Each structure stands twice: as structure tokens, then as C-alpha cells.
TrEMBL record:
Residues 17-149 form the HTH marR-type domain. PROSITE patterns: HTH_MARR_2. One of its GO terms (molecular function) is DNA-binding transcription factor activity. It comes from Micromonospora carbonacea. Pfam families: MarR. This is Transcriptional regulator, MarR family. InterPro entries: HTH_MarR-typ, MarR/SlyA-like, WH-like_DNA-bd_sf, WH_DNA-bd_sf. GO terms for biological process: response to stress.
């Protein structure tokens, strides 16, 4: 290579090798695409599906607690809940501990749809990660938890 042409780590690795970040983002894009496809039958977006999962695991929550668990702004959580309420998947009711506050709770249909989405996402994950041997899956899970935290 010419001395005046900078060499990036990706260039030095060779044209057929991707950098770690590029590989990670390619997998993330694939996961997002698969997730959108998996959610199509229920006409919910990934944020709404996450909210259903949180409500399934934790039961009725105040909107602020749901926003915190979703790691989004309260206003954005309101929009997520509005969409789910329009579909009949959640209901708002007064918090018995503080009548000024509102709890978000799953409806019977929300429980059914939440369970169906959970099963579909589990099957989706098995298809995606099923090609990895158990040791590689365990290593990947450990690495992703480390990066997440």
C-alpha cells in the first residue's frame, strides 16, 4: 500500500472480513426485520410488543413505571399505551393506592396476544440462534449481557 493512503483496521483485515461493529449491526438489522415480520399478524409494533411483555411479567403498572421499564419518555409511553388501548389489549384504571394515578393493565385479549407474541418470538429466536451449538449460544448470551449492562 502507498504510504500516503491511510489504512483502516477494516482495510487491513481484508475485503471479505467485516469489522465487529459492522457484523453486530447486520445482525441487529436482521433481528429488527424478523421481529417486524413476526409481529405483523397482531398489528403491533416492537415497542407495543415490549410493553405487552412487561405488563405480562409485572402485572398492572403506573404509566410512569411502564415508561421506566421500557426506557422511554412518559409521553412516548402514553402513545404506546394509547395504541394498545385502541386495539383492546390494555385498559387504564384508577390506582387504588392513589386515585390521581392511573394503572395500565392487560385485558383478556391482551393476555392472549401477549402470550402468542411471546411464543412467536421464542420460535423466531430458535430459528435465528438454532444454528449455534450450545457452547456458542452460552458465550454469545454472556457477551451480550456484558455489553448490555
Amino acid at each position: 500500500m502507498s504510504a500516503d493512503i491511510p489504512v483502516s483496521p477494516a482495510t487491513a483485515a481484508g475485503p471479505d472480513e467485516e469489522g465487529l461493529a459492522e457484523s453486530f449491526w447486520a445482525v441487529a438489522r436482521r433481528l429488527r426485520r424478523l421481529s417486524r415480520q413476526t409481529l405483523e399478524p397482531w398489528e403491533v409494533n416492537p415497542g407495543q410488543a415490549r410493553a405487552l411483555g412487561i405488563l405480562t411479567r409485572h402485572g398492572a403498572l403506573r404509566l410512569s413505571a411502564l415508561a421506566e421499564r421500557l426506557r422511554i419518555a412518559p409521553r412516548s409511553a402514553t402513545e404506546v399505551v394509547d395504541g394498545l388501548q385502541e386495539r383492546g389489549l390494555v385498559a387504564r384504571r384508577p390506582d387504588p393506592a392513589d386515585r390521581r394515578a392511573v394503572l395500565v393493565t392487560l385485558t383478556d385479549e391482551g393476555v392472549r396476544v401477549g402470550a402468542a407474541i411471546h411464543a412467536a418470538r421464542h420460535a423466531e429466536a430458535e430459528r435465528l440462534f438454532g444454528g449455534l451449538d450450545p457452547t456458542d449460544r452460552a458465550h454469545l448470551a454472556r457477551i451480550l449481557r456484558t455489553l448490555r449492562d
